[in-house]
Amino acid sequence: MNFVECAHSTETAPCSTADFIPVARIADTLLHPGRTIDYDGRRLTLPELRMIYWCGGNPFHHHQDLHRLARAWQTPDTVVVHEAWWNTTAKFADIVLPVATSLERDDFAAGFSDPHLVAMPRVREPAGESRTDHHIFSEEIDSFGYDDCVGHPAWFEPVEWLRAGLSDRFPLHLISNQPASRLHSQYDNGGHSLESKIRGREPVTINPLDAASRGIESGRVVRVHNDRGSCLAGAVLSDDVMPGVIQLSTGAWWDPAQPGRSGTLDRHGNPNTLTADRGCSRLSQGPSAHSALVDVEPYDGPLPDVLAFAPPHLEH
């Protein structure tokens, strides 16, 4: 689902807003400002757009009824686009900011189901006066003065990683990826997801060297823990993760042993029992889920029942 964020103005007093429209309604918005549409259980008012700044994507490729879009495209005062090619979107713009292609920038790439992140070093400098998208925005970002997100690519040490001081107590880096057995947490109670569980717990992948040093065998229920909480999971030993790293997918329905009590054990294996709730930078305030240190140990106590899928008790 894609959205267009927009700022709109009136004749008397300009204002900025965090409004959005579904990207497929761009022509409707340009042609009929003020009209309301139904969207996802609410009513949206289409704003008046005086300027279009399009970065990423090609509306004259993915939009329907291109003649109607072309008519709508004439209504704003100015159209600015980032483009590497002299395509239709560039031809219909007032200002074209030439951007570097994937061969002209350092980047990383991964497909939806790829198990690896692939480095993509540039093979040449950007042609002419073209710049990367990030560089074009670098000046504005730098003007914010954020010490955790400057206006150029830079390395910032994560709060929790294998070289942090906290690794003396919690020497394993937790990766909480999207699951292969369900969509996020949807259908965690379905057969395919349940078949992936180990003794009813979410599987956690551990390197054999880390498992051996902790007396953990494949199929064993383990306790994954740090200062924020702990959860039970089923051990899977594999060289697919490097020593010092464990992998526990997101989406297992949270099943606290004592609901309402802070720090109580999660019986099912939800990694967000362990991750930190802090923004990754002042620019994005996005989640920093993959920056979490933990340790793992065999769980020797009696195994509690998983009640994540238990229906409520109803009085008759």
Task: Put the structure in a nutshell.
With 316 residues, the protein is an alpha/beta fold. It has helices spanning 26-31, 59-62, 66-72, 88-91, 133-143, 191-195, 208-213, and strands spanning 3-6, 19-22, 36-39, 42-45, 51-54, 78-83, 95-98, 107-109, 118-120, 172-175, 203-206, 221-226, 229-237, 245-248, 293-298.
Task: Explain the overall architecture.
With 316 residues, this protein is α/β, with parallel strands linked by helices. The protein folds into three domains: 1-98, Rossmann fold, CATH 3.40.50; 102-156, no CATH class; 165-298, Barwin-like endoglucanases, CATH 2.40.40. 14% of the residues lie in helices and 22% in strands. It has seven helices and 15 strands. It has helices at residues 26-31, 59-62, 66-72, 88-91, 133-143, 191-195, 208-213, and strands at 3-6, 19-22, 36-39, 42-45, 51-54, 78-83, 95-98, 107-109, 118-120, 172-175, 203-206, 221-226, 229-237, 245-248, 293-298. Strands 10-14-11-13-12-15 form a six-stranded mixed beta barrel. Strands 5-6-7 form a three-stranded parallel β-sheet, with no helix packed on it. Strand 6 (78-83), helix 4 (88-91) and strand 7 form a beta-alpha-beta unit. The longest helix is centred in the middle third of the chain and has 11 residues, at 133-143. The chain is globular and about 70 Å long.
